[in-house]
Amino acid sequence: MKARERFSEIAALADQDIDLAEAALVIAAEEYESLDIEYYLGRLDVLAADEALSRAPSSELEESVSRLNRYLFDRCGFSGNSDHYEDPRNSYLNEVLERRSGIPISLAIVYIEVGRRIGLPTAGIGFPGHFLVKVSGPQDIIVDAFHGRVLSMAECEGKLRAVTKSQVSLEPDFHLRAATTREILVRMLMNLKHIGLRGGEFERALGCSDRILLLLPDAPEELRDRGLLNEKLQYYRAALADFKQLAEVAPQARTGGGLEQKIAELEGLVRRHYH
């Protein structure tokens, strides 16, 4: 089965039925056509089966997290790729498992998946500007997988203030909410889309936008972005369909945003190019 077809099936599932690791690897499979998804799922199983994690399991959550951190970050060497942050390989889970290097969200996926395999209640956090991991317990533990360390609540608030450039107070129930699997996949695809846009790789960016809309079919901003990408690539019929759908799902966009004019322009382009 082709990667896009499989991703379409995954996107149609209920959130709790989506396998995060498989979905992340299916995203990578569009770039690596011969990618063996089962092999890389097995790599996660092997990481989780190491005796360093299975020996003397602790009932103390903090000790279990410390053991996992020492194993993944110190022994296995998973770390953030600060020097080449924009390298798209940092966003492909197969490459992250091979190179043991990535960006916050891809390293978080490794952490979440290994954590789940050893019985830790791990989840992603769509924190502004820097994806994090939460290990749920009587007192949640927040892990920065990019820097390989636990963060205090004060440090989380400091990061939040740095990103927002304000003195906002951290609200854990809001700012540290567990992300859904769908939200994690959308954020991963958004990162790849922006890399494609910055590099002038508009077909790749369009492929990301297509998959985001499989996950969130009526997302207004994404319909707009895909419409603009289709127009740039001279796929005028597709662009027109996107902007017409945008007008349906976000009627407020018709006023003041030039949407009606855009639709009229694209209708003219469709008539000239296809008739």
Structural commentary:
Helices cover 59% and strands 7% of the residues. The strands form two sheets. The chain has a four-stranded antiparallel beta sheet. α6 links the parallel β1 and β2. The model has no long low-confidence stretch (mean pLDDT 94). The protein folds into two domains: 173 residues, C8orf32 fold; 57 residues, no CATH class. α3 packs across α7 and α10 runs antiparallel to α11. With 275 residues, it is of the alpha+beta class.
Question: Can you describe this structure in just a few lines?
Answer:
With 275 residues, the chain is of the alpha+beta class. 59% of the residues lie in helices and 7% in strands. It is globular, with a radius of gyration of 21 Å.
